[in-house]
Design brief:
The chain is of the alpha+beta class and about 280 residues long. The chain has 5 helices and 14 strands. The protein is elongated and about 95 Å long.
Length: about 280
């Protein structure tokens, strides 16, 4: 009796399993995979690539398609191509659309700069610091290559170090920049001592000078120094002047130098040796 009931239960289970798999096969048959041909891509939005580069990137995604996987891959490839050219804050979307003679639309969205915030600065104003990073303007398209070049030049400043962090912006489709500053007073003096002199003029050299790293408010650096002999100060007189000014918009710097050396080495083999140079 028990075996008979068990047989009926097992038979019912097998029947239910059969019905389940039959239902799955009907569902698969009811939703066939989408097939279509792609003859060209129409790029909308803020595409920063030229036509030739765009066509090269998307060439592998033309032709017959089954499903949307390759279209999503095409969008990702175009996005990665932007990143290689410095546009790391551009995104490429596959928008909802109706197939029209093999034309697929891709939309490029630029996440522009919403806000640039300065933290940590004690001796330089926010406006002054942002002048050294001209890419960080509100609503600007950020290019990481340009930012890197500007940051390299800005960090040559003797009294200031910069670190830039980019994060999601508060406004839609924006990013915000935080510029962390570690700075010091833009003017200082210095003294030095070494033993690079000669027996005739004295081994010990004394050097003193000063530097201003924002002389005319343009991050321009002026340095003046004077070197003499500790033993014979009247025989060794060396002056040095230098001036440099950055041109941030061109990621360049102009520098000028002047030096004057007047050294009297005394008498050697009945010859008076002295020299002055500029």
């Amino acid at each position: 009796m028990a075996l008979s009931k068990l047989g009926k239960i097992c038979g019912s289970c097998l029947t239910l399993i059969g019905i389940f798999f039959f239902s799955l096969s009907l569902a698969d048959a009811a939703t066939p995979q989408v097939e279509f041909d792609v003859s060209t891509f129409a790029i909308e939005g803020d595409n920063r690539l030229d036509a030739k580069t765009t066509d090269t990137v998307l060439a592998d995604f033309l032709g017959h398609h089954q499903g949307l996987e390759k279209l999503l891959a095409a969008a990702k490839a175009l996005e990665e191509a932007h990143a290689k050219q410095g546009y790391a804050f551009h995104r490429v979307q596959l928008p909802p659309q109706t197939m029209n003679k093999g034309v697929i639309r891709l939309n490029v969205i630029a996440f522009k700069l919403g806000e640039a915030r300065i933290t940590g600065s004690e001796y330089f104003s926010d406006e002054h610091i942002l002048q050294s990073l001209p890419s960080l303007k509100p609503q600007a398209r950020l290019n990481t290559h340009e930012i890197a070049r500007e940051l390299l030049l800005a960090n040559r400043h003797p009294s200031r170090e910069h670190i830039i962090n980019i994060k999601k912006g508060q406004a839609e489709d924006t990013v915000d920049a935080e510029v962390k500053i570690k700075d010091s007073r833009p003017y200082f003096g210095f003294v030095g001592i070494n033993n690079i002199g000669t027996e005739q003029t004295g081994r010990v050299r004394l050097t003193g000078g000063g530097q201003h790293t924002n002389l005319f408010g343009k991050d321009d650096v002026f340095t003046a120094s004077y070197t003499t002999s500790q033993k014979y100060p009247e025989d060794v007189k060396q002056y040095g002047l230098s001036y440099s000014i950055p041109i941030y918009k061109l990621a360049s710097q102009v520098s000028m130098f002047y030096s004057s050396s007047d050294v009297d080495s005394g008498t050697i083999n009945s010859l008076d040796i002295s020299g002055a140079g500029q």
